[in-house]
Amino acid sequence: MRTTYAIGVDVGGTRIATGLVERKGRMIKEARALTPRDSGPFGIVDAIIDLISEVSSGVHPSEIAGIGMGLPAQIDFLRQTVEFCTNLPLAGVDMRSLTMSRVRYPVTIDNDGNCAGIGESRFGAAKGVRDFIMLTLGTGVGGALFLSGEPYRGSRGLAAEVGHMVVQLDGPPCPCGGKGHIESFLGRPALSVAGQEAAQSFRGRAIREEAGGDAERVTAEHVVNAALKGDEVAREILIEAGAVLGEALVGLVNLLNPKLIVVGGGIGESCGFLVDRAAEVIDEHALAGRRDVRVIQAELGNDAGVLGAAALAFDEHDSREGLHR
Ligand SMILES: [Zn+2]
Question: Which of 3, 6, 285, 321 is the most buried (most CB within 10 A)?
Fold first, then answer.
């Protein structure tokens, strides 16, 4: 049977977003809540179930294809297990079964970067593009690789952690435990540290003012806000981050020859100049013939994860039922 709706769930380190979504990507109803980070996995599942009930109320269960759920974690997609999770206590937790024991729909879990990529691929900036790289710049740096029209998952479904590519040997620490990864330079904690260092000096006074005059309280958002108001020091921090991103992506562009690189996440979508700098560096350094790759900002904003998760639920439903998309 061809169902009308799917439920998309996007679990973030800060917020959980849920939506009832039509096949063409229209969000019919949405609900959000803060992630109860300190309540353990059961508390997080409780919050997810409440949001699912809210968006599905009044809809007959037979009309719902299933639930897709993006998690800020490394997911073994084939076994549907959570391998590793830095920001929430979900490592080793069977989120799929825990959720399915409480609702009457099938559940599919995936990495949040993949979900955002699926969302942009079906309904956003990468619509109709078969080969592209998705990057989400937020608290962490997530990613997805779309090759020949499908997300590339690797041998165990753990592929596409673009944010954990090494850009500097023995570089600054990354929250994953590694060193010198893209996330070490572009994650919110890294941008906060750069902003705090700048705010200590006279030159960084505009950044300091964003944080109420206290250099130690400067966050990534303060840096972004100061830059958007035209402060040169804040812009330099973000443009330098864009250059690091560009350098890192040169290797991927040379390797994979994508048509498009889509940059999303809170930081990516508010900092056009960071994205432009990355594009310039790729244009300067990529091998000949690959330089026509376009680097653009994502289009779906916060909805990318929910819409992509819902699309995943439709796909799983259709392949179970033997339907083609
Ligand atoms: Zn890392």
Answer: 6
